[in-house]
Amino acid sequence: xxxxxxxxxxxxxxxxxxxxxxxxxxxxxxxxxxxxxxxxxxxxxxxxxxxxxxxxxxxxxxxxxxxxxxxxxxxxxxxxxxxxxxxxxxxxxxxx
Length: 96
Fold this sequence. Notes:
Helices cover 56% and strands 0% of the residues. It is mainly alpha-helical.
């Protein structure tokens, strides 16, 4: 990551080092009673979107001077999505 070896990163960030796999695993296991699909969606929301994609969108917007909105990231939409049973979220025949 960033051109550093894992041991070098640990030395640089000795007080704040978190193993990425532990971080993802902690997020995956946060929802104790949830099924694998819901846990995976939770990781995607909290690690990938929050930690990566939303920041990239914000930076690219600042550089280009564009203003964007992400209505599907509204708290009410996300809460509703978590209430939908897993069997209605994915069509097993269509993986996309």
